[in-house]
Amino acid sequence: MRFCPFCAEPLVDLPLAGRQRRVCADPQCGWVHWDNPLPVVAAIVEHTDSEGKILLARNRAWEAVFFGLITGFIERGESPEEAAAREVKEEVGLDVTATSLVGVYDFQRKNELIIAYHVRAQGEIVLNEELCDYRLIAPEKLRPWDAGTGLAVRDWLARRG
């Protein structure tokens, strides 16, 4: 970001609240780019119609070898639990029947704060336009990855024993 979104003056880097921040150069304006992380939800989807297998999906933009959890942004007026259920319905067509918090994870690479849930869901899997493939994995064969939502998978598996 190079210019103030309110007055169009250039932004400058100044120390503010203990860090360097992008600040509007016009002292009358005073706009600050705080660059706070975005809250997102992630769902470890247990498909109850498939003997409790975990659904991993592949986004159309990803390489063919990558599959991940169902994720999405929280919308205004929505709780994180509601967001997780909505994202599961929108992305794979399943109805969430139970939700439990797994944990909260820092994902600095994308400046996001991930709120991860284990959800039980039922119904026919129907992918939306964002997704192109899915896999159903038995929990004992699920392997966590080293960043982002993989940390939630790791913690969920550890709790299961």
CATH architect. name of the largest domain: Alpha-Beta Complex
Secondary-structure element series: EEEEEEHEEEH
CATH class of the largest domain: Alpha Beta
Number of domains: 2
> Would you count the extended β strands for me?
9
Under CATH, the homologous superfamily of the largest domain reads Nucleoside Triphosphate Pyrophosphohydrolase
Beta-strand portion reads 35-45%
Pfam family, one: NUDIX
Protein name: ADP-ribose pyrophosphatase
Cofactor: Mg(2+); Zn(2+)
Keywords: Hydrolase, Magnesium, Metal-binding
What is shown here, in short?
The chain is an alpha+beta fold and 161 residues long. It has helices spanning 80-92, 149-160; strands spanning 11-16, 19-24, 32-33, 38-47, 53-59, 70-73, 95-107, 112-122, 131-137. The model has no long low-confidence stretch (mean pLDDT 95).
